[in-house]
Write a structure and sequence with these properties.
Length: 110
């Protein structure tokens, strides 16, 4: 689960953040992805399932960032850096996977 500290950091930086961890009931990955798409939100996750829903099942999305191997204290900082550096790609519904060693970007074209 994406950390509460990361949510606060994004919010403090001026981003409109919705954290699924605060929802009363978990609607499931498909519904979370649908909500993010319809509200034009970038989905930030630690879970590869969202990318699979988008790629393998063709579900629409408004951009996905997947963080791999970051501590809860690093998640917000890395998220802010990726949003800033790749805002154009995310606005075009890219899927960005970030780990300690590299950043992979999958655009709608590849």
């Amino acid at each position: 689960m994406y950390g509460v500290k990361a949510v606060s950091l994004l919010s403090d930086a001026g981003h409109d953040v919705m954290w699924a961890g605060s929802w009363e009931k978990d609607p499931g990955d498909t519904e979370i992805l649908n909500i993010a798409f319809w509200e034009n939100r970038i989905l930030i996750t630690l879970d590869k399932d969202f990318g699979e829903l988008a790629i393998l099942h063709g579900l629409p999305h408004a951009g996905i960032i997947r963080l791999v191997g970051f501590s809860s204290s690093e998640q917000g900082i890395v998220s802010l850096q990726i949003i800033e550096k790749y805002s154009k790609e995310l606005s075009e519904s890219a899927i960005i996977t970030v780990d300690q060693n590299r950043t992979r970007i999958r655009t709608a074209l590849n």
